[in-house]
Amino acid sequence: MLSKLDSNILNDCFDERLLVEAYSRLHFGLLEIHPQAPHRFGGIGLMIDRPSVRLSMTMNRSWEKGSATARQDLSLDWQDSYWKRRFNDVYDRFQKRHGTVPLGRIELEQAPVPHVGLGSGTQFACAASAMLNALNLDSPSSASLMDRGRHLQDILIDSGRGLRSHIGLHGFLHGQMIVDQGKLSLSDSVDTPRTRLQSFPDQWRVVLVCEDVYQGDWGDNEQSIFDFCSKRENPNRARMLELVDQQILPCLQNSDYPGASHAIGLYGELAGEIFAPAVGDAYRSPRIRYWVDRFRSLGFRGVGQSSWGPVVFVIVQDDQQARWLLDKIKVDIIDGSWTDVCEKAGPAKIQTVR
After folding, report:
1. 245 and 311: one domain?
2. Which of 165, 233, 235, 237 is the most buried if burial means most Cβ atoms within 10 Å?
3. Where are the alpha helices (DSSP H) in 160-212?
4. Is 229 found in the same domain as 108?
């Protein structure tokens, strides 16, 4: 139970900033969505370093619990109303479980555009939850927060995420490539282990293309698609599991770029076919299909949409190939689009700066 800021944090009058930075999650596709089928909501994904979300809290070290200067209510002066609502949701869960604690000035230093397929909602919620739960640590840092089981559980609960896939949650905690086996049986509980980590070659890069022509599905619309398409088991599930275990993971371990790229691209297309009855294709929009075909025409095979899109990703061998590709597709970029070159990300960063 959180009752006060640790005395080591409150031992003098200097301001201290608590910083949390979380990264983005590529999701290559779900293994299964049928309610009674094994591996429901399992899948694979990769944490990438861009774009990221950054939150900070400035705390005066002379504050004590109940002091007039310590803000114990939540009053955010953010201009971004979307992320402000999301922070309020996390804070409400936190306060119900832990009570009221002194709060500093909380700032949203950087946040990605939501609903583009990069898991920003989960990363933001985990970052907000980690920031609030860090108030109970002597010296908050990534290592101290991730190594203490109780605080780790608090982060996951207060974030309110992980109702389906666990890739974003474990990506926040560990980074790298995450394999989520999903629920293997109806008796699995929320605590049943279901993820494992896989390294991703340091020199490989991920090129992103995002067109601002629509947002990915979320909320009620996303749920209606799941409801419609979950009436049958995924006929490609066995093939997708085979791709993960026999091709994707061994190829990544051996830095086999052609083998891993081909298998990841095929996996993603098979995953997309789960939702084809509702959306008409393995890819969510004609423009996503355009980009997948365009990259394939240039010889790339590790291509796909992340989650619902509109982000399309391409796995390339190094920075030089990434720059070549971006130059090659300049003529295809439409107004309102953005591109980026990313590398694999590690766990979220949590640190105090005085």
Report:
1. yes
2. 165
3. 167-174
4. no
